[in-house]
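Sanity check

After download, print the first record. It should look like this:
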Amino acid sequence: MPFYRLYYHIIWATRGREPLITREIEREVVEAVKAKIIAIGGKAYAVNSAIDHVHVGATIPPNIALSDFVGQVKGASSYHINHLPGNQHKIAWQRGFGVVSFRRTEMEIVVNYILNQKAHHSQGTIFRTLENLGEENDDKHSHVREEHPPYVASGNDTWEDDEEAASG
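Expected C-alpha cells:
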C-alpha cells in the first residue's frame, strides 16, 4: 500500500436542492455514506447532512479518482435509501460535487464544521465557499458570510505566499 495523506471536505446536494434529507432518513443517509466510504477503502472522519446536502470529511486512497469515489458513495447511498423496506422518502442527488482539500492539522476544524451543520445553518454561520457548490444564482445562501473557512485558500493565495510565510 502506498503512503498517502489526502484529506478532503466533500459536499454534494440533493437534486434541485429539494429538501429530501428528512429526519426520518437522515441517519440512514449518513450511515450509508460512511459504509460505502469504508467499503471502497476510504476513511470517514465526519459525515453529516442538512435538509438538502451532505458534508463529508474523508481520506481517499490514491488509486481511486476523486470523482469515481464521490460517484460511488452518492450512488450507493441513494440506492440504499430508495430500497429501504417501507420507505416513502426517496432521494436523488444533483450532478457533481464540491471539494476542498485540507491539512491533517486542520482536521478538528473540518470535523467540527461538518458535525455542527444544523447549528451553522440555523445561526447563519455557514461559509458560502462550502455551501453553494458553485451553483449559478444561488440565492438560497445569499445570507451566509463571504469569508473562507480557515483551511480554504482565498482566490488571492498563491504558493509564493505560502513559501514566504514558511520562510518568514
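If your output differs, re-run the checksum step. Summary of this record's structure: DSSP finds six helices and four strands in the chain.
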